[in-house]
Amino acid sequence: MELGAVLVDADLIAREVVAKGSEGLERVAEAFGPEVVGPDGEMDRPRVASIVFGDDAKLAVLNGITHPLIARRQAELVAAAGPGAVVVHDAALLVEMGNATRFPLVVVVHTDAELRVRRLVESRGMTEEDARARIATQSSDAERLAVADAVLDNDGSEEELRARVDRLWHERLVPFEENVRLGRAVRGGTPVLVEPQPGWADRGARLAARVARVAGERGLGVEHIGSTAVPGLPAKDITDLQLAVTSLDDADALDEPLRAIALIRLPEITRDNPKPADPEPDHWRKRYYAGADPEQRVHLHVRVRDSPGWRLALLFRDWLRADDAAREEYLQVKRAAAAECAGDPDASRYVERKEPWFDAAASRAERWAASSGWSPPY
């Protein structure tokens, strides 16, 4: 690519793995008959499509042949890219295939549906009916935008889109790659409270799904916690997540998988501050990660399920969601702390400034839990 990215094009690879003389084409012919190979030795795509269309079992056979070959070729291209490369996967069916959580950053190029119809008619010679039918078979705009960490508006000219790509490359992708390669997390920075954002819940769900995938069987649930998980509460624009594990040994085994989705372990943070009801520091141990994305800040707290820190993170979130007075009281504490620590280069003193309120409020949250019948979500 012009800017230096290594492009892994899923459509091109899908054709490559069943090209003339390939292992993939040989296996497709074995599965569906020699007639799927045309006179030129290439796969007869319309014939194969007619065989698998509307037949889930046969489609599964075809996918069982091609998908592992595609994945193997993609892995080869990524391995060959070398250190320092920015690898861009061009995957038109990212949502349909359920692959969005595989990547540390998903960019969606978005165009208004009516404009897409017009462009298909003008550039591809399609009828309007055919263009609308094609769009109807694809994932919806809402589904694509839900998996997007960045959105490139393509309603304008090609030059405008190129300018947006250039900005994304230089301001986000290049520093993102460098941060991951060097193991450099992006910290919270100066504490600045912003008004609640409509995308906070979707971002939390998107990032949580990414963590859950890499955690696999070691993970016992991922939750969006902290202030951005409380509707209506102004907060620092940071997504806090909590991953539950059976033991911290399981947490330590996840260091590399989490780094693959751009979450960097901060070894200096090893526990939460003990609360008066359980002052034993060893009970509050955890692992802590921060993201490498310069424009999407995320903190991941990995705690043993049923530990006091794990329970309290979920309890405070749900209590603040339910109790208007507690939420307003906490907001005043946050605003006072943010004002006091406004000149600080990081948020550590801001966090410490709020701790006395959490210590005092913990018993009230517990009383709310008892009166409401609250219990952790899993």
Automatic annotation (TrEMBL):
Gene3D superfamilies: Beta Polymerase, domain 2, P-loop containing nucleotide triphosphate hydrolases. Its EC number is 2.7.1.24. SUPFAM superfamilies: Nucleotidyltransferase, P-loop containing nucleoside triphosphate hydrolases. It catalyses: 3'-dephospho-CoA + ATP = ADP + CoA + H(+). The keyword Cytoplasm applies. Signal peptide: none annotated. Its main location: cytoplasm. One of its GO terms (molecular function) is kinase activity. The keyword Cell cycle does not apply. Keywords: ATP-binding, Coenzyme A biosynthesis, Cytoplasm, Kinase, Nucleotide-binding, Transferase. CDD domains: DPCK. Pathway: Cofactor biosynthesis; coenzyme A biosynthesis; CoA from (R)-pantothenate: step 5/5. It is found in: Cytoplasm. Pfam families: CoaE (PF01121), GrpB (PF04229). PROSITE patterns: DPCK. It is an enzyme of class 2 (transferase). PANTHER family: GRPB DOMAIN PROTEIN (AFU_ORTHOLOGUE AFUA_1G01530), GRPB FAMILY PROTEIN. In the N-terminal section; belongs to the CoaE family. Catalyzes the phosphorylation of the 3'-hydroxyl group of dephosphocoenzyme A to form coenzyme A. This is Dephospho-CoA kinase. It comes from Pseudonocardia yuanmonensis.
